Amino acid sequence: MKTDKIRIAILGYGNIGCAAEAAIKAAPDMKLTGIHHHNDDINKIQADVVLLGTPTREVQHYAEKLLQKGISVIDSFDIHTQIYALRQSLKPIAEAHKAVSIISAGWDPGTDSMIRALLQAMAPNGITYTNFGPGRSMGHTVAAKAIKGVKDALSMTIPLGTGVHRRMVYVELEKNAKFSQVEKALLKDDYFAHDETHVIQVPSIKELNNVAHGVLLERYGVSGDTHNQRFEFKMEINNPALTAQIMTACARAAYRMCKHKHYGAFTLIEIPPIALLPGDEETNIKALV
Amino acid sequence: MKTDKIRIAILGYGNIGCAAEAAIKAAPDMKLTGIHHHNDDINKIQADVVLLGTPTREVQHYAEKLLQKGISVIDSFDIHTQIYALRQSLKPIAEAHKAVSIISAGWDPGTDSMIRALLQAMAPNGITYTNFGPGRSMGHTVAAKAIKGVKDALSMTIPLGTGVHRRMVYVELEKNAKFSQVEKALLKDDYFAHDETHVIQVPSIKELNNVAHGVLLERYGVSGDTHNQRFEFKMEINNPALTAQIMTACARAAYRMCKHKHYGAFTLIEIPPIALLPGDEETNIKALV
User: What's the per-residue H, E or C state across B116-134?
Assistant: First the structure.
């Protein structure tokens, strides 16, 4: 059966946008119809689905504009506490314009959320630990850069188990800045005050750059009345490549949901895994079940 | 919001049925309305959803009967090569009688299938290895029991990595049977001829009994054009307790699908994770995403 390819455009061309380009080109059922910068005219976008590679805080703005034009949108919005509000605000817009928005479509939030939901269904009582890293924390890196005397910084998240993390903060100082003062200010900052934090002075941050990341999800729980059910999910990955790949898979799901008139805004735990895969359903069921 | 509890019955009361009883009783949104033996009158079953604890080869028979009465059914049918055919045969019956059948709703096939689908979406090129055990293999145990001179047997599956398995076969012999002959016959059997197999004579199988099992799913793959993406999913679990818990979660999903008039027969990769969890959607999205 010959089907038309899904027309995908990228808005925002940083780490994620660049990785998305590779993921779309590798997909057998997709056609890349454009790469747009954040200040381009949005009316020029010709696509069934747009992948947003813009900063998280600009997601809502662009998602609304695209949904209003009836174009489906995928983002990797990553502020956990604001995901539900984003979903609720995009949902009526998507419904009104017959489009689909899949939000927070990265690995955490995203596929990790699917695994957490699944583990909770498999062992309803128990604790899930999410251990991030080793990998760069964007939020902590920005906080470190804001300290007086810091020219550039990198904050690495190191997993210590049971959801506890160490912060390894590398700093490149401004001329005449004193390390002991920078260290003191950083350790008092609310971003770092609650975790074990080490501050290390380096001549240049640039050489430390690396987009590797990872996670270890652990759950020990109870199925029925049976305790000691043990689960682990572990990844060691290139962060933007995985995020962009998941967004690309979600573009496929959004396209299919539109075909089925299933409009609205959705998080990944609301999507069946089969919707993420290329090819026809029957073949995938035979191969994967 | 007060909602009516989902009425669940169990048909078949072996390992799975017994564990299902515990899972249903532990569920906040369910009411156990009956435990039925395979020769009971099926017309006496009062339930929204029935969990089938019958042997795999009887699943189709009972599922058809229940669906024809408009009762949704969950099974843990585990013959991988026949799952698709079972789905296709139950689908029109479920649709005609406004019911839902979720098939092969255990851990493999089942939740492992969901993870495999997810990993394939996250890294479309690559290989997934499914390593089972240590744990009892039902099929191999039955094959060992069928060897002449074997009174009782237990075949354990031991994972050697990259999907290769060792078989540790414990045999209790009939009086006057010769171990060397039993060993020779067993090693020639098609179930064992292709794997590293060790045959061990024991005085009694009963003391070796243990329902522990496990799996390690591994995938090394490519996201976009980025290689070396590494994923692992590992479980160490009580087998019937986990199977029954997954079936119970699927009963909830089936009940909800009926409410949304989404009738038919489905495998787990067609179900969104959120449908498996008790409680309202909004709360679960806030907690898990």
Answer: HHHHHHHCCEEEEEEEECC
Q: Can you spell out the DSSP letters for A165-184? A: EEEEEEEEEPTT--HHHHHH
Judged by CB atoms closer than 8 Å, whether chains meet at B289 and A83 is answered as yes
pLDDT in tens, A88-146: 999 999 999 999 999 999 999 999 999 999 999 999 999 999 999 999 998 899 899 99
Residue A25 class from Cβ within 10 Å (0-12 exposed, 13-18 middle, 19+ buried)?
middle
B149 to chain A, closest Cα gap in Å: 36
| CB spacing of B111 vs A123 below 8 angstroms | no
Place of tokens 């652990």: A218
User: What single DSSP character describes residue B106?
Assistant: B
Q: Do A272 and B274 touch (CB under 8 A)?
A: no
Q: B115–A120: do the CB atoms touch at under 8 Å?
A: no
Distance, CA of B207 to CA of B170 (rounded, Å): 11
Residues in chain A: 289
Residues B237-265: pLDDT tens digits? 999 999 999 999 999 999 999 999 999 99
- Give A124's contacts in chain B (Cβ within 8 Å): 26-27, 245, 278
The answer to whether A229 and A222 have CB atoms below 8 angstroms apart is yes
CA A195/CA A287 separation, integer angstroms: 45
Question: What structural domains does chain A harbor?
Answer: 6-109+240-288 (3.40.50.720), 125-223 (3.30.360.10)
pLDDT in tens, A29-39: 999 999 999 88
pLDDT at B3: 66
What single letter denotes the amino acid at residue B54? T
Cα–Cα dist A31/A48, whole Å: 10
- Name the H helices within chain B: 15-26, 59-68, 83-96, 111-122, 138-145, 179-188, 239-259, 281-288
* CB contact set of B207 (below 8 Å; sequence gap of 6+): none
B/e letters for B173-212, b = 16+ CB within 10 Å, e = fewer, are beeebeeeebbebbeeeebbeeeebebeeeeebeeeeebe
Alpha-carbon gap, residue B170 to B154, rounded angstroms: 5
| DSSP code at position B150 | E
Strand, coil or helix: A266: strand
Strand order from edge to edge, sheet including A100-102: A30-36, A6-11, A49-52, A72-74, A100-102, A264-266
